[in-house]
Amino acid sequence: MKIRVMAAVIVMSALFHTVVSAENTLTVEPVNLVSDMVTIKGHVDSENELVTVIVANPGVEPENITSGTDLLQQYWETETDDNGNYSFSFEMSEVAVSGEYSVFIMSSELSKTMKSTFYFATTEDRKTAIEEINEKSIDYIAGKIDEYAKVLGADDFDALNGADDKEIAKHLKKYIPYEEDGYVEVQKKLMEGAILSCYRNKNTEYIYNEKGEAKNASIIGFDTLDNDYDCTLYMVFNNILNGTGKKAVFSNISKDYADFDALKKDFMTNVFLLAIDNTDKMGGGHISDIITSKNTEAVGMDADKYLDYSNKNALNNKIVEKGSFSSLKELEETIADIIKNLEKNNNSSGGNSGGTGGAGSMAGAAASILPQVQEKEEELVFSDVDRTFWGKEAIVYLYKNGIVNGFDDGTFKPNEYIKREQAVKMFMAAFDIEEAEYDGSFSDVNKSDWFSGFVSGAVKKEFVKGISGSLFGVGKNITREDFAVMLYRIIGENTAGKSDFSDYDEISEYAKDAVSYMNENGYINGYSDATFRPKKEITRAEAASIIYRYIKR
Fold this sequence. Notes:
Blueprint: H1 2-19, E1 25-28, E2 37-43, E3 50-56, E4 72-79, E5 85-91, E6 99-106, E7 114-120, H2 123-135, H3 138-142, H4 145-151, H5 165-173, H6 183-200, H7 217-220, H8 225-228, H9 233-239, H10 243-252, H11 260-274, H12 287-290, H13 293-299, H14 304-308, H15 312-322, H16 328-348, H17 359-379, H18 392-400, H19 420-430, H20 452-461, H21 480-491, H22 509-520, H23 540-551
Antiparallel strand pairs: 1-2, 2-5, 3-4, 3-6, 6-7
């Protein structure tokens, strides 16, 4: 089936692109198996344009249409809306036969007639297909999967191209008998069987895209997983896992699953484990978003020790240091060991062990207590930046020198992304650059805004520009490459430096010299996989560390 269906898709794709431009589109949605309704919609690059829609019977071309309803299913004229969009729905007639129908879109704005097709099967043919699936052998059904896919409106379903017909047939047979009018249920099981076959045979082309995003997420139920299982693991998949991690999830779950429920449970476990190490987040703050009471319940992990431990920052950072975990049990045991060691270290540095001696014992107690007090004062600069946090030294230094501030609740929020106007203020403070009176050059900056003087001073100093002639980009998170460019312009270096980042070609041309210079001089680093990730947004802790490295050079 794979070759035949793929050939049909290629032919249709070629036809589509010869008649449809980027501005003009035509889409025919699959026939509604319950109501026999067909929906045609699209776009013409002209508002309030008269559009003619012709739906011709199988084998009929527009030039052959002269008159007679035997040639046509529908003839319809309408105007596009103010955005150039059109839409039309109709019910197939009672005398319609099974076959491939053609849709033609014409207007004075189109240089060529747009064409698409759809397959319609009569009620009798659908019932015959269901009767055969109920009664015939698996081998017989496997030989007719192409036909059943057409009859049941699933012939364009991509996963069919990567699936094994016999495996689909076996899946269909698991749920017999089907009602004679159970078209939707049989279509669902056919598509489900195709997806599971792709996972079983590791046909990753039909499982995820180049970004690591799941294909057919809505059919499998990934997109409702957090509601269905009362967890946040699909959020973790989308917002914490990087592209490498997402692909690793799908590599691990390319197995033989009986149904989607088994697939989803394995998916959740792999997301849970892989998100610890496969992320673009810095530090260990993201661990608390993974190991929650609801997420651990969803994957079946005993996380009481983690959830009850008070110093989450220290624990999270140690978990990140360990890195990858092959099982929930390994993670449980590692957490227990980390907590044991942390408590042991705290107890071993904890002051006087007893006694009521005289001056000598009091002096000993003071000697052991004093260093602890000093460490505690440093930790309390920000409640979410303790002595184990990787960026603590930079953050505390910049804070004490008036370059960065915390929040009213006593936190620094090191893993939050920094916005363009915040980055400008940080650089102005670090390099003692004066503010300037705002001249109103950006439509998204008002004179009354707290950052208007910083923006104006930065533009005057020429280390920052707007994202366009009229927009500064207020509220937009700044990327790693743009942060490097700002610092590079302030320094005023002319040498480009060298860079061996594996994703060097992904760095914008205007930023390549800056990134290379910053990297060669040790002010900005890449990741363990030799990437720089130029378009990744930079966190407050990362930004503080880069400026600190330059100041302390």
